[in-house]
Write a structure and sequence with these properties.
Layout lengths: L6 E5 L19 H11 L5 E4 L6 H8 L3 E6 L2 H8 L8 E3 L13 E6 L23 H18 E11 L11 H9 L4 E11 L8 E8 L3
Helix pairs in contact: 1-2, 4-5
The chain binds S-adenosylmethionine.
Length: 219
Amino acid sequence: MNGIPCCLPMSSTRQRELPAEFRADDVRFSEAFAEHVIGRFSQVGDVVLDPFAGFGTTLLAAEALGRQGYGIEYDESRARYIRGLLARPERLVHGDSRQLDSYPLPAIDLSLTSPPYMRRNDPEDPFSSYTQPGRGYAAYLETIQAIYSQLRSMMRPGAHALIEAANLPGEGGITPLAWDIAAAVGEVLTFEGEMVVIWEPSFGPGYDHSYCLVFRKPE
Ligand SMILES: C[S@@+](CC[C@H](N)C(=O)[O-])C[C@H]1O[C@@H](n2cnc3c(N)ncnc32)[C@H](O)[C@@H]1O
């Protein structure tokens, strides 16, 4: 892994306070993390896409660093919230990344996201923001692979895609989500390795670290 550190100690503190309606479901990574990896893997002026934009951390960090931040977010109220914060609100699409290649996006220099997580036995579909019944864990992994297959065709040669994911403790044992995503997406993009992100302070028991998976479209 050329120049990619194996371990990344990182502040987990989110600087931006969410509106009260969102606080019970704060699924964000920290601004410090987004700024660090965007700075490391892209240049000023580059196009940075978050296909699961959440509360807009990637897009806001991209704008702050002089990149062009684009995103897709399924949840309408989150999409509206992000648009209210962006200098270029039209770059956030309220949509569905399962249809990623149907959106008119420019060529992508970097993608950074944390996808909606799934444990092996979760009944809901994460790609509907947990609003619809799921088709199981294998179907979840097939879907994420299909999304990144579309993304591949939209990335510039040599561009990186970064996925922040954790292995998830739960009642039925640990779901090795990060490793399963690495294997699934590694079928469509070159897997260059992972950075172990050490979150300080910890996000809670079992969540003191996660993985920033590094993929690349071949030149
Ligand atoms: C883990 S959160 C991302 C948080 C983001 N990294 C941040 O710091 O704000 C995942 C997001 O993906 C969204 N999502 C779920 N299914 C989606 C889909 N099919 N297309 C686009 N967004 C989706 C969820 O609504 C959620 O906001």
